[in-house]
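Listing S7. Sequence submitted for prediction.
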Amino acid sequence: MPKLLAIALSIVLALPVAGSAQTTGKDVKQKAGETADAIRDYTVERKDQAVAQARKLSADLDRQIKQLEGKSSKATGEAKTTAQKQLDELKDKREQTRKKLAEMKDASAASWDAAKTGFVDAYRDLRQAYDKAAAELRK
């Protein structure tokens, strides 16, 4: 009996704790939001780091949008129409975010605060539109 108990205990201890090492979509969304907000805190002296971080955020969301486009292509009927409208909105917002990133990259010391705030706001709008489209496709 003690040997059986020891085996059972070792099996239980070897199992991963549920959720301990898993990253959820909510975690990614929260991290992206925190990172975007952190860009607001960058000074003009750290402009290169802010631009690099903004590029990374944009590239990560671009990949997620491409995945969403793939999923939406499988939709049919009204769901496909709705998905296409949301993807068109995403494309517009993605273009606005790219423009704001370019403005941030080219910003002078005098225009830095407005440029980084413009990017963060555009990114937040894009992220919200993505979240809305992704939720709609999950229905």
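Caption to Listing S7: primary sequence and predicted structure tokens for the chain studied. DSSP finds five helices and no strands in the chain. The helical segments are 2-14, 25-39, 47-72, 77-106, 112-138.
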